[in-house]
Each structure stands twice: as structure tokens, then as C-alpha cells.
């Protein structure tokens, strides 16, 4: 799990069935000073995080499979919570 | 999931039977600065190393795709399969607005 900033989103009409219906958010990992670390990645969002929200991104594939109710889902990153 | 640009294909003469129906793409991962207009015009090659990605969605050269690496890449298959990276989305548009 890491802290990230939502920096955009992606749209895909042709994707794995388990991605259908979830928003694909571009998440940039940030350090304690809010500076970007590494390259942005895509995480699915079921909670409605907005642009530039600070979020927790989980990298637990098993958790992601539970979240989308699909045991064969290839998703790993998902937004686990929005930081107040 | 990482974002990459399909820059070519790899063809095998002999490969494992479990790979039937798919193909191998050469994918150049994109840098953040290339995201915004990647789907509209062909992005330049980034400095990141090219990845070979298994594809059964039907992506072609020039497409911008999302791929997963590691154990999750094998999850959609109902049998053990030696795959390192899998294409799971072909993008229509990407919007990137860093702070």
C-alpha cells in the first residue's frame, strides 16, 4: 500500500471484463513532502476519488480480485481509501 | 497496471501449447509527459526498457495499452502459464494533469 495523488484517468472500451464499470485512475506515488516518486500507475477506483485527491493505493492482487468479485481478474492496484 | 505503446510484435515458430490464440507484443512503457497526447499521435520512444507482453485482446502496432506484470498476469488463465506481462486494456484516451 502506498500514498498517491490522483493525476488523471484513462478510458478503455476494450479491456478485461473485470475492469468494466470501474474507473481507471492514474495515480502518482508521493513521498512525505508530497513530491512525486517513480512513474504513475493505473489503479481502479470504486469509491469516487476525484482529480488531485490524495489516496491510499493497495497493491494486493487478492484484495483486488475480491473487490471486483472475479477470481480470475488480473487487477493488482486499487484505490483503498481517500485521505482526509 | 502500467501504460505502454505497442511498437512491434514477436512471432514464435515453436511455443507452448497453452499460448495458442494469443500473440506477443513489444511494448515501450510511456513516461508521464507522453500520456496526454499518446492516443492521438504516435509517442516517441521512451528511455524505459521494452517489455514483451502477451495479448489476447487484439492490440496492434501503435495502440496504447495497459499491462500488468507479475503474478496477476497469470490470474485470468485456468491453468499454470509462464507469463510475465499481460495486456488487459486498450486505451481510447488518457488524461494526465499533474499538480
TrEMBL record, chain A:
<dbReference type="Pfam" id="PF03319">
    <property type="entry name" value="EutN_CcmL"/>
</dbReference>
<protein>
    <submittedName>
        <fullName>EutN/CcmL family microcompartment protein</fullName>
    </submittedName>
</protein>
<dbReference type="InterPro" id="IPR036677">
    <property type="entry name" value="EutN_CcmL_sf"/>
</dbReference>
<dbReference type="GO" id="GO:0031469">
    <property type="term" value="C:bacterial microcompartment"/>
</dbReference>
<keyword id="KW-1283">Bacterial microcompartment</keyword>
<dbReference type="InterPro" id="IPR004992">
    <property type="entry name" value="EutN_CcmL"/>
</dbReference>
TrEMBL record, chain B:
<dbReference type="Pfam" id="PF03319">
    <property type="entry name" value="EutN_CcmL"/>
</dbReference>
<dbReference type="InterPro" id="IPR004992">
    <property type="entry name" value="EutN_CcmL"/>
</dbReference>
<dbReference type="GO" id="GO:0031469">
    <property type="term" value="C:bacterial microcompartment"/>
</dbReference>
<protein>
    <recommendedName>
        <fullName>Ethanolamine utilization protein EutN</fullName>
    </recommendedName>
</protein>
<dbReference type="InterPro" id="IPR036677">
    <property type="entry name" value="EutN_CcmL_sf"/>
</dbReference>
<keyword id="KW-1283">Bacterial microcompartment</keyword>
Amino acid at each position: 500500500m502506498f500514498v498517491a495523488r490522483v493525476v488523471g484517468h484513462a478510458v478503455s472500451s476494450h479491456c478485461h471484463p473485470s475492469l468494466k464499470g470501474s474507473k481507471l485512475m492514474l495515480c502518482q506515488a508521493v513521498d512525505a513532502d508530497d513530491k512525486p516518486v517513480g512513474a504513475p500507475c493505473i489503479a481502479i477506483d470504486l469509491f469516487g476519488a476525484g482529480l488531485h485527491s490524495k489516496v491510499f493505493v493497495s497493491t494486493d492482487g487478492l484484495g483486488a480480485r475480491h473487490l471486483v468479485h472475479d477470481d480470475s481478474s488480473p487487477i493488482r492496484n486499487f484505490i483503498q481509501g481517500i485521505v482526509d | 497496471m502500467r501504460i505502454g505503446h505497442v511498437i512491434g510484435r514477436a512471432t514464435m515458430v515453436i511455443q507452448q501449447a497453452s499460448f495458442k490464440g494469443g500473440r506477443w507484443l513489444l511494448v515501450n512503457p510511456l513516461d508521464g509527459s507522453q500520456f496526454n497526447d499518446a492516443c492521438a499521435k504516435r509517442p516517441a520512444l521512451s528511455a524505459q526498457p521494452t517489455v514483451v507482453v502477451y495479448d489476447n485482446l487484439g492490440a496492434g502496432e501503435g495502440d496504447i495499452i495497459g499491462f500488468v506484470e507479475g503474478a496477476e498476469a497469470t490470474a485470468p488463465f485456468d491453468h499454470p502459464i509462464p507469463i510475465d506481462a499481460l495486456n488487459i486494456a486498450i486505451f481510447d484516451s488518457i488524461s494526465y494533469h499533474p499538480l
